[in-house]
Write a structure and sequence with these properties.
mainly alpha, single chain, membrane, 3 helices, transmembrane, GlsB/YeaQ/YmgE family stress response membrane protein, 0% strand
């Protein structure tokens, strides 16, 4: 159990940081928020990989890690967009 928590934090930190590097522009996110986005992406990616049977490989689970990274990129982009909308006072396009 402790090993799973530690690996989620480590993988979460890595995919969160990579997600911030991949998303274009400047994101006004704290390190803690980046870590949280990365951990959530890592856990969701692992869950989805297990559901589809992608995590049951003999070597490195590349599909699982790519999925985690893609979810981290999406999470960083969404959080950065929400923070930008909140700081400008805009709630999105007018309908």
């Amino acid at each position: 159990m402790i090993g799973a928590i530690v690996s989620a934090i480590v993988i979460g930190a890595i995919v969160g940081a990579l997600g911030r590097l991949i998303v274009p522009g400047k994101q006004n996110m704290s390190i803690g928020l980046t870590l949280i986005v990365g951990i959530v992406a890592a856990l969701l990616g692992t869950l989805i990989a297990h559901v589809f049977g992608w995590a049951d490989t003999r070597g490195i689970d590349w599909l699982e890690h790519i999925l985690q990274l893609a979810l981290a990129v999406l999470g960083v982009w969404l959080v950065a967009r929400m923070q930008a909308n909140r700081s400008t006072g805009s709630s999105g396009p007018a309908v």
